[in-house]
Amino acid sequence: MTIIGIAGGTGSGKTSVVKKIVEALPPNYVAVIPQDSYYNDTTGLTDEERKQINFDHPDAFDWKLLIKQISDLKAGRAIEQPTYSYLISNRLPETIRVEPKPVIIVEGIMALVDKRLRDMMDLKIYVDCDADIRLLRNIQRDTIDRGRTVTMVMDRYIKVLKPMHEQFIEPTKRFANVIIPEGASNTPGIDIVCKYIERLCGVIE
Predict the structure, then answer these.
(1) Of 52, 6, 56, which Cα lies nearest the Cα of 33?
(2) Which of 14, 101, 164, 181 has a CA positioned 20 to 30 A from the CA of residue 78?
């Protein structure tokens, strides 16, 4: 089994890079584990307390569960991946059963933050992107999918996203084996990474 970590700022194009990698490998060869599914359970908090959570800080994630479930997959055991709703800022009752696959991709803004998780990875990728493009993508995504206004997104970017990115996410570049500028639009970079992963997994000699 090959475990790949894909990190980068919010709106950097991580999901698009993951899609390109999945498409390059045989069908049903990859299980993608989104780090966003592992935000802490906030069932015991009030709505007001949930609104105060900094979702761009490492403390917002349930690292213990994420690391355990990646360990289970690596050991050949299926997991029940949690699901998370941004609209209610909490986990949903439903889980997603994930079976072990030859390639496990852990994708998220802080996929490379925790050393215990990094040490389980065979390949660590950082998707880089200009801050202004990431901001525009955040505005588009959050207004459409997460019920936020443009003003809310801008305010959050200045107060939370930018400082958290600089403090916690950007520094994880140094842990990456590969940095992909411009995300999925960097076709040569994606092709090189995909070929390397194919060799790593024994898909091609």
Answers:
(1) 6
(2) 14
